[in-house]
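Input sequence (298 aa), recorded before submission:
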Amino acid sequence: MKIERLAIIGVGLIGGSLARALREKGVVGEVIGCGRGKENLEKAVELGVIDRYTHDIGEAVEGADVVFLAVPLSAMRTTFAAMKGHLSDNAVVTDGGSAKGSVIEDCSSVFGEALPNFVPGHPIAGTENSGVEASFAELYKDRRIILTPVSQTDESAIARVETMWRDCGAEVTRMLVVDHDRILAATSHLPHMLAFALVDMLSRLGDTEDIFRYAAGGFRDFTRIASSNPAMWRDICIANSDAVSTLVDNYAEEMKELASLIRSRDGEKLLALFDNAKQARDRYVDGLNQQAEPLPTE
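Predicted structure, token format:
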């Protein structure tokens, strides 16, 4: 089903790539962009990502049959508030936030309950780059999109969002909100916390310049995600604080145990730990998921 008018609130990597993919597929008509940065929006028009833009969210969503929210988690509530009273009766709203419980709570706080036509979603895709110039049509190809509808969500709205993402070449799955936030805390949010913490710790050592000068490929691969947007990750930590903080605590205990094994030179237990980790990764990561780990959404 063709989207006659798509409104994208937040025309960056995520929103821009969605527009590009749908345009390439020929399944979208007019694309309206909305955001605060005039230069970025003008660039989006110049690149053909959007047809026109406005800084007013209410104006942007009027007449749109699909609205995609690609704003920071901290801006979700004010975005919903700005949309209220401007949406068409048949408008389907979805988002790209990487913590779903907080987004659903923000929606309910504005509208009194979850909108039947609001389909919470999370594209598991991204890069360390941002802005509309970083967007590209293939971002979602063969990537997973997780939808977390609630009991009030209309099935026809879900079907429409599923079709939109499949038109982008993505694999769409459904998940309970609590499961999404718990699983993403473990597989995405925690690894980012580890990368940020490691680079922060090393940056405060006395011989910082030499440490980073001689960093090998493994260090660069592991810490690549520490180049992600700091404000975005602050928002994610706050939005999914219970799950993330629990896992950070668990990992801290694991590191204490590891330090103890190294200090005592317990080769047998060290080997057992490393071997278990290798087997688990080979079985569950390489075996089940051959695609490279993407960065999460804006």
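Checked by second reader. The chain is about 50% helix and 15% strand.
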